[in-house]
C-alpha cells in the first residue's frame, strides 16, 4: 500500500487559492458576548470543548517541537472590542509576510505561556504590560513548523502606544472582534496536490481558512515610542493559516 509523504507544498500566495465557500450558515457570536464583562466570565468558567482546529494537520519533517505563545490582544475601544494584529516582515524564515498575533517561542526564564506572550508583545510591538489584563487561554495550536502555540487572551486598555521591531514586524492593525466572530467572513480554501508514495504519486488535499479584512493600518513611529496611534489609509490584510485557525477556535469558544 502506498504511504503519503509528510511533506506538503508551501502556499506562496494564499489569495490565489480558490475559495470553496464560507460559513455564512453559522450564527455570529451575539453582540452581548463581545464585551469585556462577558468575556471575563467565559474564561472564568470555560466550556469543556475541544478546539475545532487543533493544528495545521502535519509537521514539516526534521522539525523539533518548540513551545511558543501568542498574545490575543482585545483592545477596548469605545465602538467595541478590536483585535490587535501584526503583519510579519517578508524576510523571516517562518510565516514570512503573514498576519499574526504578537508572540514567539518560549524562553527558559519565562516560566509560563503568559510571560512568553507578554514578553514577546513587548519586544515585537512595544506593548507595555501595564495596559494588558490577561483573562485566559485558548487550547494549544500546533503549526506545520512544529510550534506548539498557546494563545493567551487579554483585554487591552486603549491608551497604549506601540513601537514595532522593524526586523520582525512590518505593520500593526486592528480588526473589529465582531467582524472576526461572524462566520460569514470565514472563507474556506481548498486545493489538491501530488505527494510521492512507495507505489507512485498520491493525491493530497490542503485546506485552510481566511478572513480578509480591509481597513486602516496603524501609523506607528519606530523612532519615538511615545507616539500614539493614528489611522493609516485603508488596505487589505489577508488573515489566514494559523492565525485564522486560532480565531476560529475563539469563535467556537465564545459561541457554544
Automatic annotation (TrEMBL):
PROSITE patterns in the cross-refs: NUDIX
A GO molecular function held by the record: metal ion binding
Name assigned to this protein: Coenzyme A pyrophosphatase
Region Disordered, residue ranges: 97-116
Species of the source: Roseateles chitinivorans
Residues of the Nudix hydrolase domain: 65-196
Cofactor (UniProt): Mn(2+); Mg(2+)
Compositionally biased intervals (Basic and acidic residues): 106-116
CDD domains per UniProt: NUDIX_CoAse_Nudt7
One Pfam family of this chain: NUDIX
Lineage of the species this protein comes from: Bacteria, Pseudomonadati, Pseudomonadota, Betaproteobacteria, Burkholderiales
Keywords for this protein: Hydrolase, Magnesium, Manganese, Metal-binding
